[in-house]
Amino acid sequence: MKVLLDACVWGKAAPALEQEWHDVTWAVEWPFDPGDEAILSIASKENRVLVTLDKDFGELAIRRGQSHCGIVRLVGIPAKTQAEACAQVC
C-alpha cells in the first residue's frame, strides 16, 4: 500500500511500515511544510493513504470535498504504538 505519513506521525512508523512492504513517504523529509491542503492533494495525486493525527484533514475531505485516497487518523494512540497501529490498518 502507498502511504503518506503526516509530519505529526512518530518517525519510527515509516521504517516499520516499510518492513511490511509498504511504499512510505513521510512529510518531515520534505524541504518545507506545504500545508494541509497541499499534503492531502499530494497524497491523492500519488494514490497514497494519508496517516495523521490532525483532524483538519477530515474537514478538507468531507466538508470541502477535496479529493483523497483515504485518511487514517490516529486518535489517542501514543507515539511508540503508532507504527503498530499503522501496520494494522494499512
Notes on the protein architecture:
This protein has 90 residues and is of the alpha/beta class. Helix content is 40%, strand content 17%. It is built from four helices and four strands. The protein has a four-stranded parallel sheet, sandwiched between helices. Helix 3 links the parallel strand 3 and strand 4. Helix 1 packs parallel to helix 4. The protein is globular and about 35 Å long. The N and C termini lie close together (7 Å). The mean pLDDT is 92.
Helices, strands, pairings?
Elements: E1 2-5, H1 13-19, E2 23-26, H2 36-45, E3 49-52, H3 56-63, E4 71-73, H4 79-89
Parallel strand pairs: 1-2, 1-3, 3-4
Helix pairs in contact: 1-4
Cα gyration radius (Å): 12 Å
The beta-strand count equals 4
Anisotropy-based shape: globular
Low-confidence stretches: none
Strand content: 15-25%
> Which sequence of SSEs, written as H and E, runs from N to C?
EHEHEHEH
- What separation lies between the terminal Cα atoms? 7 Å
Count of discrete alpha- or pi-helical segments spanning 4 or more residues: 4
What oligomeric assembly is this protein in? single chain
Helix percent reads 40-55%
| Arithmetic mean pLDDT | 92
Class by helix and strand content? alpha/beta
Give the strand line-up of the largest sheet. 2-1-3-4
The main β sheet shows up as: 4 strands, parallel
Summarize, please.
This protein has 90 residues and is an alpha/beta fold. It has four helices and four strands, in the order βαβαβαβα. It has helices spanning 13-19, 36-45, 56-63, 79-89; strands at 2-5, 23-26, 49-52, 71-73.
